[in-house]
Design a protein that fits this description.
- By secondary structure, this protein is of the alpha/beta class.
- It has 4 domains: 168 residues, 2-Layer Sandwich (Beta-Lactamase); 165 residues, Rossmann fold; 80 residues, Helicase, Ruva Protein, domain 3, CATH 1.10.8; 53 residues, Orthogonal Bundle (Arc Repressor Mutant, subunit A), CATH 1.10.10.
- The protein contains 19 helices and 17 strands.
- The strands form 5 sheets. It has a 6-stranded antiparallel β-sheet. The chain has a 5-stranded parallel β-sheet with strand order 8-11-14-7-15.
- A hairpin with an 8-residue loop joins strand 12 and strand 13.
- The longest helix is centred in the middle third of the chain and has 47 residues.
- The chain is elongated, with a radius of gyration of 37 Å.
- Bound molecules: adenosine-5'-triphosphate and magnesium ion.
Length: 503
Amino acid sequence: MDRKKLELTALYEVSKILGSSLDLNNTLKNVMKTLSVFLDMQRGTVALKADGGIEMKAAHGLTASEIKLGKYKLGEGIIGRVAKSGYPVVIPNVGKEPLFLNKTGARKGISKDNIAFLCVPIKYGNEVLGVLSVDRLFSSENISFEEDLRILKIIATLISQTVKLYRQVEQEKEELISERDELKRELKGKYRVENIIGSSDRMLEVFEAVHRVAPSKATVLLRGESGTGKELVAKAIHYTGPRARQAFIKFNCAAVPEGLLESELFGHEKGAFTGAVATKRGRFELADKGSIFLDEIGDLPIGLQAKVLRILQERELERVGGEKTIKVDIRIIAATSRDLEALLSVNTFREDLYYRLNVVPLVLPPLRDRKDDIPELAEFFLKKYNEENAKRVDISTTVLKKLMEYHWPGNVRELENTMERLVVMSKGSTISLADLPVNPILKESFKKGSLTGYIEDTERENIIAALEKTDWVHAKAARLLGLTPRQIGYKIKKYGIVKQIAS
Ligand SMILES: Nc1ncnc2c1ncn2[C@@H]1O[C@H](COP(=O)(O)OP(=O)(O)OP(=O)(O)O)[C@@H](O)[C@H]1O
Ligand SMILES: [Mg+2]
């Protein structure tokens, strides 16, 4: 092939390569390789301006570490000069040129007497983006560098367009990313709900939903495993909404014996039953103008579900033993950790009630699905219990890592309890791995050590104390301890606690 044909083919190949991918360095490397194949140029490099200087980005015939060395100040060496002036430079004989720095250390083994060095600016309009340089081996004296320069300038122009395009895409990408981060931060600030910790996408969605539903009167159904923060979110909905200054009445459907449920919820008239010595307003009435939080709604006995449905539909009720219909203006927030759909299928939960409750379902993700929140939560509880115990305990990163590995079946409540224990039990100023056996994480893999035994004894004593304080009303004792009735029930069974009758 004659030179012209070769040049055309090379240009065609180069333009194809330049359009082929958005991996700039790799693209440039392929261009250099093509040049060497077609135009008998030995080494080739592309350097681009960066950080006030110029850096080699891609090369053919240089090792990766040699490329790394190719950094110049503007005006330094030949590449630096071309970058600064914007004019090409030809060194007909590298061996005789003192300006030639050979910073990269390439061409060490060969005589430099028959190497010419051609260097052209990569320009976009008047702006110098970088420098394209090639080594050309020559054996005889009569080569015209003019022709080489001409083709290199064309190639530099092609490269400049790609670099420019790439930079634009990069810049747009960066702008989009920073815009997204900005929005995320804004959202987080705007929707931050006090005392609810979390920055994971899942929790941001929850915060957003809280703010969207809070202003309305819509019934909200909170779903999620035990300890995921359902009660916390219920309060957030009430206290960020227009009813914030009115009552927030909490009622746990699982904590009250079935026989008392109806009169607790709906109230009773005097004389409605033995013991009804005075008229009593129920929780729904107490919540008038405010919100009622029906916790553990899945445990509501089927016999009462129709009455609750009526409240949801008509916002009216009659007290037990009463004739008068009472209107209430309430916002209803319900919560359950039970599988309501399963209850539907065995007919222990009414379908109509289910649909009435399920107007705005809000699911709280289990902690193991948002492990990113664990460090923030751990710090939050650490601070809380340090303050409560007048301590200044810190946590090591190894422990934090361990906390992040655990699957937290008891979710945030379990993490909170764990942090409290770690703070209370810590001897030094930092919670380290050695402190962890008190933690359920390692309970799984450690044999019951004496420390664990100590913790369990303490827990047992605490439960008995709470029960004694509350006349052995499990639900009340549970509340004192921050446990659910089910949890206290489990622990009472586990520790074999029985009511002590004083003699
Ligand atoms: N995102 C959170 N940030 C801070 N504290 C949290 C968070 N989620 C839960 N907690 C804390 O964890 C404990 C359990 O939360 P909460 O009582 O709201 O859970 P729950 O879903 O109602 O659990 P259960 O179904 O067992 O009643 C509380 O002490 C609460 O303050
Ligand atoms: Mg709860």
